[in-house]
């Protein structure tokens, strides 16, 4: 036999008492179900703890009589409580509708203000970004303009330096050319003066060779005459511009000039210009 210990054992010493207790328990359970059904709460019955033994330990002293287990009738299942019907919410009252509309209007206004603030913030960020981009562009444009200005200034300085060097080189070349021309002119003037002097001496020698000095000439008087000549050296006229004080000597020199025609003249045009068209001729008898 396998003994079973139960948490609650009902002794059936008196059958009437057991039946009354069972009826009382059923009614109590039904009342509890109704109470919990009205309050929309359901309470599960407490579990019954039962310990099952496979076998009892053997007692070495004396055997213990084991009573057969008492079988109890199962309790009747209570009838399910009717489900309460969901009550429809009462229709909102007029003040509640006005309050709800006011709340909705306030919420709409709040959302619109929030959207306006967000839009203003977004526009402010865009304006700030645009202003920053414009400022950066202005700085870059200013830097580019400054760099271009500096480049132009450097180019102008280089051009001015180049022009100055070119002007200085041209001035040096012109100065050298003038010096060369001056030197050439000096050399030419020297050659011209030498040629003119040579032909003056030649004309004086020619006139002196044709002069017949008077017997009463004393000393070494000087007579100056203006002689008009042709490019060929032919004498056109002779005029005394400064007398020697001896008319016979003056007339002898005029005759000698006329007799020496044509006078010897240089072939160079510049040298001949010193004799043509008029020649200022001075003559002394002892030179």
Fold blueprint:
Layout: E1 4-6, H1 15-38, E2 50-52, H2 94-209, E3 223-229, E4 235-242, H3 247-259, H4 269-272, E5 278-283
Antiparallel strand pairs: 1-2, 3-4, 3-5
Considering the chains and any ligands shown, give keywords for the structure.
287 residues, mainly alpha, Fusion Protein Consisting Of Minor Coat Protein, Glycine Rich Linker, Tola, And A His Tag, Chain: A, Domain 2, three-stranded antiparallel β-sheet, two-stranded antiparallel ribbon, 4 helices, 9% strand
Helix content: 40-55%
Note the total helix count.
4
Give the CA-CA distance, first to last residue.
198 Å
Low-confidence stretches: 1-12
* The top level CATH class name of the domain at 196-213 and 221-283: Alpha Beta
CATH topology of the domain at 196-213 and 221-283: Fusion Protein Consisting Of Minor Coat Protein, Glycine Rich Linker, Tola, And A His Tag, Chain: A, Domain 2
Q: Indicate the radius of gyration in whole angstroms.
A: 81 Å
Q: Biggest sheet: strands, sense, closure?
A: 3 strands, antiparallel
Report the CATH architecture of the domain at 196-213 and 221-283: 2-Layer Sandwich
Major sheet: arrangement of strands? 4-3-5
Could you explain how this protein is built, in words?
- By secondary structure, this protein is mostly helical.
- Among the domains are: 49 residues, no CATH class; 81 residues, Fusion Protein Consisting Of Minor Coat Protein, Glycine Rich Linker, Tola, And A His Tag, Chain: A, Domain 2 (2-Layer Sandwich).
- Helix content is 55%, strand content 9%.
- The protein has a three-stranded antiparallel sheet, covered by helices on one side. Strands 1-2 form a two-stranded antiparallel sheet.
- A hairpin with a 5-residue loop joins strand 3 and strand 4.
- Helix 2 crosses helix 3.
- It starts with a strand and ends with a strand.
- The N terminus is likely disordered.
């Amino acid at each position: 036999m396998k003994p079973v210990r139960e948490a609650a054992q009902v002794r059936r010493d008196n059958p009437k008492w057991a039946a009354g207790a069972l009826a009382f328990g059923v009614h109590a359970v039904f009342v509890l179900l109704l109470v919990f059904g009205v309050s929309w709460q359901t309470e599960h019955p407490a579990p019954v703890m039962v310990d099952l033994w496979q076998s009892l330990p053997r007692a070495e002293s004396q055997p213990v009589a084991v009573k057969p287990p008492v079988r109890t009738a199962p309790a009747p299942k209570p009838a399910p409580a009717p489900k309460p019907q969901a009550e429809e919410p009462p229709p909102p009252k007029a003040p509640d509708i006005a309050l709800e509309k006011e709340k909705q209007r306030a919420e709409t206004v709040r959302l619109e203000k929030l959207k306006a603030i967000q839009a203003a913030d977004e526009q402010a960020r865009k304006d700030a970004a645009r202003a920053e981009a414009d400022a950066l562009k202005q700085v870059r444009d200013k830097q580019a303009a400054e760099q271009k200005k500096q480049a132009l200034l450097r180019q102008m300085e280089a051009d001015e330096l180049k022009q100055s060097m070119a002007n200085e080189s041209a001035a040096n070349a012109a100065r050298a050319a003038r010096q060369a021309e001056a030197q050439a002119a000096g050399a030419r003037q020297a050659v011209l003066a030498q040629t003119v002097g040579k032909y003056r001496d030649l004309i004086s020698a020619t006139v002196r060779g044709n002069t017949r000095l008077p017997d009463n000439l004393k000393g070494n008087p000087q007579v100056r005459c203006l002689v008009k000549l042709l490019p060929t050296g032919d004498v056109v006229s002779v005029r005394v511009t400064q007398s020697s004080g001896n008319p016979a000597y003056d007339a002898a020199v005029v005759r000698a000039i006329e007799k020496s025609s044509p006078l010897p003249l240089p072939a160079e045009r510049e040298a001949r210009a010193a004799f043509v068209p008029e020649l200022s001729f001075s003559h002394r008898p002892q030179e």
